[in-house]
Amino acid sequence: MPVTHLLDTSALLAHYFDEAGAAEVDAIWQEPSHNPAICVLTITELRGRLAIEVGSADEIERVLDLYVNQLTSEAPVDRWVAEEAARLREASGGRLPLVDACIAACASRHGCVLVHRDPHFDRLPEESVARLRLPDRS
Q1: Cβ(36)–Cβ(29) under 8 Å?
Q2: What gap in Å lies between CA 51 and CA 87, rounded to an integer?
Q3: What is the 3-state secondary structure (H, E, C) of the chain?
Q4: Lowest-pLDDT range of 17-26, 35-44, 46-55, 92-101
Q5: What residue spans define the domains of the chain?
């Protein structure tokens, strides 16, 4: 089944901390016709954010297992994604962090919806990546 949604780190954190947007992320997992994935670079971002906000090594590993191994599949970064990330950064005025550019490029590669709550994704050209912007952190 093709990837339907690519979940940004911000979407995973919204779900984990039960913040605004958690219900939308949960609905993606619950819908049988959906096949959510994460960009492999999200693993690094998620681990780093959890280390800061959670601290417990056991909890970090539990969360990574849940979100990375059980609830999503992995979208790799290849040369096409790297080239598309550069194009997306340029199109956004250069204000798109590299990892987020790669995440957006992964969504573009798979022709799926990028699920996020980061305002810098709003600078992407609408035709390049379909997006679902979750509510801001409350």
Answers
A1: yes
A2: 31
A3: CCCCEEECHHHHHHHHCCCCCHHHHHHHHHCCCCCEEEEHHHHHHHHHHHHHHCCCHHHHHHHHHHHHHHCCEEECCCHHHHHHHHHHHHHCCCCCCHHHHHHHHHHHHHCCEEEECCHHHHHCCCCCCEEEECCCCC
A4: 92-101
A5: 5-133
Q: Which residues on adjacent β-strands are paired with residue 114?
A: 6, 131
- Tokens 């940004």 belong to 8
CA 93 to chain centre: 21
How distant, in Å, are the alpha carbons of 1, 17, 93, 138 from that of 75? 13, 24, 25, 29
* Dist. CA 132–CA 122, nearest whole Å: 10
Indicate if the pLDDT at residue 94 is higher than 90: no
What pTM does this model have?
A: 0.93
Topology of domain 5-133, CATH: Rossmann fold (3.40.50)
For range 45-59, the mean pLDDT: 92
